[in-house]
């Protein structure tokens, strides 16, 4: 197969053009189905068509730009919606990589019948629901869920948003996994691990599992001046003590990359002079190893039991979500690693993804792989989010080379 | 002086009549200047007049029922507003004691020129501002403060509320301390100390000082999945660790009756997947001993300094309020103790008040004393708040006897 040549200037120009839709300070504000998001999607459809891809948007806002001449295909893409008032590269970079690599395969004449289709998913950032677009694309989104979903910021129903975006009368299209060797997605790292190690590329081994809990404490509300410490049933004090113990215990149990976060705490009634009768906290744990997640969960349950036994407050553990780690294809990891070794020798590593990505959804129906490029300062979900231009170009070249290898290998096998 | 005879049936009947204004479940909902509160106040004015007292309401809703025949007087009362959806005795009991004792002195013919004036203060429960009525009565409430105050629940301005209550055109009346030997107030304990010790009466030694703090932690918001534990600046984790350390340290430093409460905690942005960049907690400490309050404060400041030094989060301590303990008159304590020893031998104690009361405001301009009766189960600020009827009657008899003694003693001295 001839080398697939991506054009850095065109890649960067398209990426900067996408940035103009919903530009906000140095970042973008492009919530799913907003006018800015829809304008960006229509521009992407047109840009794919200019590249010789057969492209259209479906009823959930997903776009697939097909190389109709290809007999062996990979799907490459990401999402084009952004978080509110956030960065310009999250999702967008992977989308433009897909466009550029699909375009490069067309320009190379779809060599040996090998081609790339470009994919753009909707609402990975969960303005309405987590992985809305990619779940629709694999047939894992019910109409019932669409009926009840609302925009978390504005409260608008998903049905209204789809109607306003002109999508209400379009069919939702499922991706046929038999048409693809697999799915590849590039993304900014959103952490500082690559930068801290002086590396340029991360080959994702798996996307971490996420366990999410709510812990509720029940006590008795009473006057904060007249109620002796000895007889209090202070739900807030119980929460503080529990959260401290969990932080201590998790520190002992954590693996190298385990992360956990208490993202919210609420005390009721929340008055300075009233002993809280109710307190709750949200706790999230992430790790790539199911065994680590399991032992953190066991420690949590143990501490809940101890706390309940010790009193004086009640405690309830609610499991909000438990996603297990999603393995990336070993074959794709090797292809990405080979390309990285050639083009950035000694400057890449294998690593888990601490964040969720559309790739974990596509992985349910076909082999999937992911490539990370460094985030400057580890910053994401913020207008300061950025990546060096040469790193952006290198990432696309490595992803294109990996696509070539996968398509070539598979060609030889068949 | 002939014995002052209070009438238990009349006392309880008036107390139950007051309970009907704003009745809510087994408690009352009588927020300051609500139609129910104003109806109750108008009824109290009328009831005082029926008792032969010269009674009227002033421009802040305070009522004084004067025994115009008396040459030596005490002021006895409390507040008639309630917390929202709260108990029937908080404030109300002390108000009806004032009415009954003032009435009993009139019925005894104001013996030797000794009499009691009944006082009813407004908004002790701080729907608009702490001790609004009693501060007005001692000349410690500016018009400027009235201009800006709003109802904490409804947002209504105080000016609007006063106008709606028909009080806008009335003068506010200051109490002349030269007219009184002092102020006495009875109240439910609002704690369980008397009940736990099997006692019937508490003679208040002082009203505790309250130190109120806000502690703010500043960190860096970041992705909860991709940001390694080692580089996090998690303001929420800093708060949990700090709150735990404070609870441990305060336990060591506390005196027998010291209480402290973390009444509220807030993490920003409060999302399960975002590391909090800001966290804050409200902390309140109460004790009767200024030295204890001072050592708790020193420990707090020391921990703030240690936390700031250790990093990685910033921490700021803000002092929201620092009231020092308010001493009750020794002479009044002795008079209350003598009466209690006669009428409930071995069943009373001296004790501090953990809650704030109008008596601490009146204490700024004249001697003040307080008497507590037991709260069943220590419950207050709740519809379950209650006190045994014989305890209610006993409290009024003891307070009346103490008034007699104080007025008699002072009479002999002059």
- The percent range for helix content of chain A is 25-40%
CATH architecture of the largest domain in chain A: 3-Layer(aba) Sandwich
* First-residue to last-residue Cα separation of chain A: 15 Å
Query: Could you give the order of the helices and strands of chain A?
Result: HEEHEEEHEHHHEHEEEHEEEHEEHEHEH
Mind telling me the CATH class of the largest domain in chain A? Alpha Beta
The largest pleated sheet of chain A is described as: 9 strands, mixed
Number of domains of chain A: 2
Overall shape of chain A:
globular
Provide mean pLDDT of chain A, rounded: 96
Q: Might you state the CATH topology name of the largest domain in chain A?
A: Aminopeptidase
Mind explaining what this structure looks like?
2 copies of one chain form a homodimer. In chain A, a hairpin with a 5-residue loop joins β3 and β4. Chain A folds into 2 domains: about 290 residues, Zn peptidases (Aminopeptidase), CATH 3.40.630; about 110 residues, Alpha-Beta Plaits (2-Layer Sandwich), CATH 3.30.70.360. In chain A, the strands form 4 sheets. In chain A, strands 3, 4, 5, 6, 7, 8, 15, 16 and 17 form a 9-stranded mixed sheet that branches. The longest helix of chain A has 25 residues. In chain A, α3 crosses α12. Chain A starts with 7 loop residues before the first helix and ends with a helix. Chain A contains 12 helices and 17 strands. By secondary structure, chain A is an alpha+beta fold. Chain A is globular, with a radius of gyration of 24 Å. Helix content of chain A is about 35%, strand content about 25%. Chains A and B meet through β10, α8, β11, β12 and β13 of A and β10, α8, β11, β12 and β13 of B.
């Amino acid at each position: 197969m001839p080398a697939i040549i991506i054009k850095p200037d065109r890649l960067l120009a398209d990426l900067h053009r996408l940035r103009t839709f919903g530009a906000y300070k140095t970042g973008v504000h492009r919530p799913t189905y907003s006018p800015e998001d829809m304008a960006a999607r229509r521009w992407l459809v047109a840009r794919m068509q200019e590249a010789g891809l057969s492209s259209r948007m479906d009823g959930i806002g997903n776009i697939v730009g097909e190389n109709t001449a290809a007999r062996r295909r990979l799907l490459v893409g990401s999402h084009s919606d952004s978080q509110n008032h956030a960065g310009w590269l999250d999702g967008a970079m992977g989308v433009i990589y897909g466009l550029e690599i699909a375009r490069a395969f067309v320009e190379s004449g779809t060599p040996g019948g090998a081609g790339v289709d470009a994919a753009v998913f909707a609402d990975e950032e969960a303005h309405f629901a987590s992985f809305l677009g990619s779940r629709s694309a694999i047939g894992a989104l019910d109409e019932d869920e669409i009926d009840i979903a609302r925009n978390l910021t504005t409260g608008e129903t998903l049905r209204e948003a789809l109607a306003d975006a002109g999508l209400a009368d379009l069919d939702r299209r499922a991706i046929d996994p038999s048409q693809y060797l697999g799915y590849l997605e590039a993304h900014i790292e959103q952490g500082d691990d690559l930068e801290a190690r002086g590396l340029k590329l991360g080959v994702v081994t798996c996307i971490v599992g996420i366990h999410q809990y709510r812990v509720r404490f029940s006590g008795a509300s009473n006057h904060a001046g007249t109620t002796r410490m000895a007889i209090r049933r202070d739900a807030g004090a119980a929460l503080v003590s529990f959260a401290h113990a969990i932080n201590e215990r998790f520190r002992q149990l954590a693996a190298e990359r385990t992360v956990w976060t208490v993202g919210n705490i609420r005390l009721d009634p929340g008055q300075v002079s009233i002993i809280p009768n109710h307190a709750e906290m949200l706790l999230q744990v992430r790790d790539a190893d199911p065994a680590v997640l399991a032992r953190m969960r066991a420690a949590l349950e143990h501490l809940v039991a101890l706390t309940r036994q010790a009193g004086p407050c009640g405690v309830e553990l609610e499991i909000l979500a438990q996603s297990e780690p999603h393995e990336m294809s070993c074959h794709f990891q090797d292809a990405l690693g080979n390309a990285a070794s050639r083009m950035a020798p000694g400057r890449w590593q294998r690593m888990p993804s601490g964040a969720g990505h559309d790739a974990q959804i596509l992985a349910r129906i076909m082999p999937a792989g992911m490539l990370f490029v460094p985030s400057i300062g580890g910053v994401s979900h913020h207008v300061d989010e950025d990546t060096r231009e040469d790193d952006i170009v290198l990432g696309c070249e490595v992803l294109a080379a990996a696509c070539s290898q996968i398509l070539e290998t598979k060609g030889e096998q068949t």
